[in-house]
Amino acid sequence: MTEVTQLTPGIWQISLPFQGETDIIGSYLLAGSDEIALIDPGPGSTSEALLEGVRQAGFDPARVTHILATHIHLDHTGGVGKLLASMPQARVFVHSKGAQHLIDPGKLISSSERIYGERMQELWGEILPVPQEKVQVIEGGDVLNIAGRRLEVHYTPGHAIHHVIFFDVHSGDLFAGDVAGVRLPGITYGRPPTPPPDLDIEAWSSSIDTLKKLRPDVIYLAHFGPVRNLAPHLESIRAKLFNWGDLVLRAMRENKSEAEIIELFIAETRPELQRLSNDPRTLERYEIASNYPMTVQGYMRYWRKHHPERLEA
Ligand SMILES: [Zn+2]
């Protein structure tokens, strides 16, 4: 079931049901000045739920004018091509490094098929190309006047090279995508999602500085929802980003296999989450949002690509 929550005047959160769970993937709807914008409308597998959510918020999907992508991972924008059939007026705003993958998703699909295999369709649904004339390329430093707001675009690589955030200077609302980590409702536990192939620890840490300097009042996470106590949250994401990287590096230097590193990683990091919640469902929900194998694979690729010298014993 799609759940819709009005967060402030003009901002709605749409919780998309994903793998039988809610409150893991969230889209945001902004409305004002006769415009409707969707931030990260989600994967193709939930596009019907997204349309239902727009209606529940009180709007006709055909009147959506803007789709804003924080980045082009499938759980954020995999469904955009499909949604455009119901949103003929919408233009899609995406960072220059991600635009081509929306226009021609071939590479994105083939690399995802290597990771997800047979589960590809069930997880992500149909991934359709976005017509080039619908795409508006954006860069850090741009300002978008959309839905009665002035949204600054800030380039925030680290999780993905095509990642941006959208910041409303006047209201203090910041739409963070994945760069402020994953934190599911009801628990004070943040996790940096570190999938391959773009993970860059140093760039991500600088992006966290970018967020802090903006001094937002609220950060809206894609996974999931608003965070208000920002400094401790962001610093816990940064600390894990580095600590988890060190853990994987040590194991690689000991010539452990990927499977062994994943096992070690879970043994070392899961107890912290288990101390905060003894509900096995919480663990499963975090796995759906950002799983351990991909976390490890992202770091392994990062060390090989960016610091091969540190892998020598
Ligand atoms: Zn992502």
From TrEMBL:
Residue stretches making up the Metallo-beta-lactamase domain: 24-223
Keywords, ordered alphabetically: Hydrolase
CDD domains reported in the protein's UniProt record: ST1585-like_MBL-fold
InterPro entries, sorted: Metallo-B-lactamas (IPR001279), NDM-1-like (IPR050855), RibonucZ/Hydroxyglut_hydro (IPR036866), ST1585_MBL-fold (IPR037482)
A Pfam family annotated for this UniProt entry: Lactamase_B
Gene Ontology MF, one: hydrolase activity
Family matches, as PANTHER family: METALLO BETA-LACTAMASE SUPERFAMILY LIPOPROTEIN (PTHR42951:SF22), METALLO-BETA-LACTAMASE DOMAIN-CONTAINING (PTHR42951)
Record's protein name: Zn-dependent hydrolase
Source species of the chain: Ktedonobacter racemifer DSM 44963
